[in-house]
Design brief:
The chain is mainly α. It has helices spanning about 10-20, 25-40, 45-60, 65-75, 75-85, 90-105, 115-125. About 70% of the residues lie in helices and about 0% in strands. The protein is elongated and about 60 Å long.
Length: about 140
């Protein structure tokens, strides 16, 4: 996973040995690093041009492992370009969802939804992600 410039002499020799035995691995490795040029651009027009060049390399590689990318990039091109050009991310939301899922696994046995909800609010308020203005007591049945 390292960039080839960061490899030690021993790692580089092992990599070249692997490439000697598998030309497909060599092509996949080169495609991976060719994609890094796409990530260097910030303007939509440059990214679109770079992605199209990279996709032509993928098509020419004839690697079945990469062929599904052609369909994915054609179906989701606007969304992929937006992800590369816009500063927005759903990382915070995904982090909150993950935290809730972990808490849910750890809290197996909490039978009252309101206690579970309060625990989620408490964890987020403690981290500064949410504020709890009042303690919510469970409703009695």
């Amino acid at each position: 996973t390292k960039h080839f410039k960061d490899l030690t002499d021993n790692e580089y020799a092992k990599l070249m040995d692997m490439f000697h035995y598998s030309s497909r691995l060599h092509r996949a490795y080169m495609l991976k690093y060719a994609f890094h040029t796409v990530l260097k651009f910030k303007r939509r027009r440059d990214i679109l041009r770079s992605i199209n060049e990279w996709l032509s390399l993928v098509f020419d590689s004839e690697l079945p492992e990469f062929q599904s990318l052609l369909k994915t990039f054609s179906s989701w091109s606007d969304e992929i370009i937006n992800a590369l050009t816009l500063p927005y991310s759903n990382g915070f939301t995904e982090g909150c969802n993950n935290k809730i899922k972990v808490l849910k696994r750890c809290s197996f046995g909490i039978r009252n939804f309101h206690y579970f909800r309060n625990r989620i609010l408490f964890i987020n308020a403690r981290k500064g992600h949410a504020t709890v203005t009042s303690h919510v007591l469970p409703q009695s049945a």
